[in-house]
Amino acid sequence: MRVAVTGAGGRLGRALVEALEEAPFTGPMGPISWRRPAFDLDTVTEDAVDGLLQRDRPEVVVHAAAWTDVDGCATDPALATRRNGDAAGVLARRCASSGIDLILVSTNEVFDGLRTDGVGYAPDDEVRPANPYGASKAEGERQAAAAYAGVTSVPARLAIVRTSWLHGPPGNDFPAKIAAAAIRSRSTREPLRVVADEVGSPTYTRDLADAIVELLAEDAITPDGRRSAIHHLVNAGRVSRADWAREVLRIARIDVDVVDVPGTTWQRASTPPAWAVLEPTPLPSGEPMRGWRAAFADAAPALMRSLAKG
User: Fold this and answer.
1) Please, is 221 exposed, middle or buried when counting C-beta atoms within 10 Å of its C-beta (0-12, 13-18, 19+)?
2) What are 137-149's pLDDT values in tens digits?
3) pLDDT digit string (tens) for 252-286?
4) Which end of the chain is less enclosed by CB atoms within 10 A, N or C?
5) 300: containing domain
6) Distance CA 295, CA 110 (A)
7) What's the Rg (C-alpha) of the chain?
8) Is the peptide bond before 37 cis (omega within 30 degrees of 0)?
9) Residue 40 shares a structural domain with residue 185
């Protein structure tokens, strides 16, 4: 199976390429990495996508490229829509019309996070984004679904994979930022204030990549012959930002006091959903993705090495 990955140089893209390199079904040539400038969210056109499809002839494209700067999206919603919405639409239309399957990676932020019943968002819950980043990703989902619904002359399938609170190499993620902030707090002997009223499921990029590879290996991106499907792929469990920070500092052995504060403590361009919990969908194996604590324990050595380098 020939699999192309957009955003192959990004956090999730790197993990996907590594996981696909170990998958026997990609053959001796392995996965196809689509990076900038060949695939650029700012310049993608139907002609450019057609050129890549004709050159590399993938059977499946995993669209991991995205503008994930949520505050940046809030300050320029039009650019967010072009990068996360329209670019996904262009890719989906060309893949659908060429009979190529597409896996579109999306986010919990397509939901507003206002539910208070303690239940995770299910794939068929109403999409209702509360910020420009979520709106741009929801637009990408909408355009992709329309593209695959509108082409019936060739067999092609769409899977939308939503996830939440991604972390993993190469750093600059929540654990890395918390560790750096804690070191600064320790030097000034001040407590570290962390948001306690945002709850989600931290998800390790390598675990998400393995789950996507499992869908591909079992030919299960859509069940029962359907043209499209939505998967919620997250590490099991849920935690507040503040308690996740405590786990980061425990493993990193950084001794500072963590003080719970509300999200309104700081003004931000974007308002993140307070309830970022997705109800996981089953994988073909029937096994759920492992718990977020176990996943973070595997991610921690890379964080520790980066801290040691200063």
Assistant:
1) buried
2) 999 999 999 999 9
3) 999 999 999 999 998 999 999 999 999 999 999 99
4) C
5) 173-200+237-277+287-309
6) 24
7) 19
8) yes
9) no
